[in-house]
Structures are given as C-alpha cells and as structure tokens.
Amino acid sequence: MKRYFTYLKSSFFVVFIAIFMAGCFAQKEQKVFQVKDNFNIYDFTGTWYEVGSTKNSSNLSDIKVNFAVDNGKIRVVKTGHLPDGSSKKEQFLARFGLDDKNASMLEISRYGLIYEPLYIVRNDRYQYAMMYIGNKDISIVSRAKTIPEVVRVIYKDKAKSDGFDIGRIEWIKQR
C-alpha cells in the first residue's frame, strides 16, 4: 500500500513538471518596450483612477488602483464596482523587473508564482500614466477621475505606434 502512494506522489510530481514546462515553452515571445530610467516608485505610490483599459472584461466602473511599498514589497490593490452595484477587489504583488530600481518596468503577479511585465511607458509628472501589461493590454490611470482630451490623444498615439489595437480601449466610468 505504501508503495502505491509513493507511486502516486511521484507520478503527480512528474505530470506537474511536464505541464509547467509545456506552459513555459508555449508562451509567446514578449515584446520589450522602452522604459524611462528616472522613475521613482515612491512618487508613483498612492491611489490612481483607471480611466481607460483594454482588460475591463467584467465592465467595472469606479476603478481605483492603489500602489503601495511595504517593507520593500510593492503591493497593488485594484477595486471597482460591478454593474449590479457590488464591489470587486483584486490584489497583486509587484517587483522591479530590471536590476535598475529607477526603471519604469515592474513585474506583476496575482498569485506570486508567475510574473508578467508591467511597463509604465508614459508617466506625466505622476499625474497621468499609461501602462502596458505584457504585450497585450493597456491601462491608463490618472490621479483625478478624468484626463484631458489631449492626454487621451497622446496616449492613444503612443499605444498605436507600439502596435496595440487602440479600438479595444474602453473608457471607464468614474463617478
């Protein structure tokens, strides 16, 4: 009987490793975006309003994203309201993606195991910012609940020149 459980444990381990390795090799090649080297995470911390996104699949409104540095760890908390009025909250861990702590490239993870690049490609005096999550999603954030039209145009032009489909950007309702 003991031998049977040992067999099951070792089989599970082999299957887990095989699935993990297949997932690693199946990932698409990530496009690398240019980042700024004068980024200050402490100026970036605090509450931001997400005003535009390509990843608002649950039709959230009133989305807030809070970046905090706690004991050297970067924590990201995203909250919003669902159409039925209930709240939704997601928590992420982040870390610097490069050795340079002044570069505007982080890696973000929901579960702490697999990290995805988060490029802060536009940062206008820590009042407005545009981030690319991986090479497929865009998040536009602001310290205020809206952004000027000129900032929208600049950010859409930047995303388009970087190869994104700007028609996928949803402008999020903030009350």
Write up this protein.
This protein has one domain (41-171): Calycin beta-barrel core domain (Lipocalin). The radius of gyration is 19 Å and the shape is globular. It has an eight-stranded antiparallel barrel. It is 24% helix and 37% strand. The model is unreliable at 12-28 (pLDDT under 50). The chain is α+β, with helices and mostly antiparallel strands and 175 residues long. The relative contact order is 0.18. Strand 3 and strand 4 form a beta hairpin. The longest helix has 25 residues, at 2-26.
Percent helix, as a range, is 10-25%
Query: Structurally, how many domains make up the residues?
Result: 1
Largest sheet composition:
8 strands, antiparallel, barrel
Q: What class do helices, strands and sheet pairing give?
A: alpha+beta
Query: CATH superfamily, called what?
Result: Calycin beta-barrel core domain
Oligomeric form: single chain
How many alpha or pi helices?
3
Beta-strand proportion: 35-45%
Span from first to last CA? 63 Å
Q: Would you identify the regions where 5 or more consecutive residues have pLDDT less than 50?
A: 12-28
CATH class: Mainly Beta
Write the CATH fold name.
Lipocalin
Q: Give me the strand/helix succession.
A: HHEEEEEEEEHE
What overall geometry do the principal axes of the alpha carbons give? Answer: globular
Mean pLDDT: 85
Q: How are the strands ordered across the major sheet? A: 1-2-3-4-5-6-7-8
CATH architecture: Beta Barrel
| Cα radius of gyration in angstroms | 19 Å
Count of extended strands:
9
